[in-house]
Amino acid sequence: MRHTAGLLQDRTPEAVRLETEWEVRTQLAACYRLIAHFGMDDTIFGHITARIPGRPTHFLINPYGLLFGEMTASALVVVDHEGQALEASAESVNAAGFVIHSAIHTARPDVDCVLHTHTRAGVAISCLREGLLPINQFALEFAGRIACHDYEGIALDLAERERLIRDLGDRNVMILRNHGLLTAADTIPGAFYLTYYLEQAARVQMDVMASGGTIVTPTPEIQARTARQYTSFGNPKLTGMRGWPAMLRLLDRVNPGYAE
To answer: pTM of the entire structure?
Structure first.
């Protein structure tokens, strides 16, 4: 079997740079399938977008109606920051996906990938006033790094973009109140990594709360120390890179075809 991960195998994370639209399409399609594989999809809803190299005002998004586990590189749709599909034969795009993602891509030139989910645990966390609690090692990676945006209804109003941008600020993780989770990163592997571990933190918290047991919370000093440990592991721009080839090998075994 040809491993699409070959582009990244035997290379250090520092060497990985996506230079063509097709490379971005391939990784983005892989990300969609990985989100489905790990149970973080919501039938045809939710979105992952990626900026196109050399075209800062254009990004790729899923066509409306395709399951995440079905995504292919060629199926992704190019849209501009005004929501216009740039291919004559392009499938329709979910308007709510455009509003949320275009806001962040427009305001944050440092962000090349935005990932938004409606998972059961993520939506549950978004309904809690206290949000994500610093009660497990997964969650402590995000201590002091989570933005919040209040629910305004289905995100169809372009005016909401200003408030989304304001609430996200310079952070890369956001809880959309009563809605779900969002991550933003300068790479596709980085956005996947943040989403995967944010979701794990949310699942653990909901399990613990459902148990009815007494919650043990690390001291503020340990919380801060652990958060610092996460940020000291290396260049934050390389977040998720080391594990990405393994994720692509996983897809090559269980759900190949994303590079078509």
So the answer is: 0.90
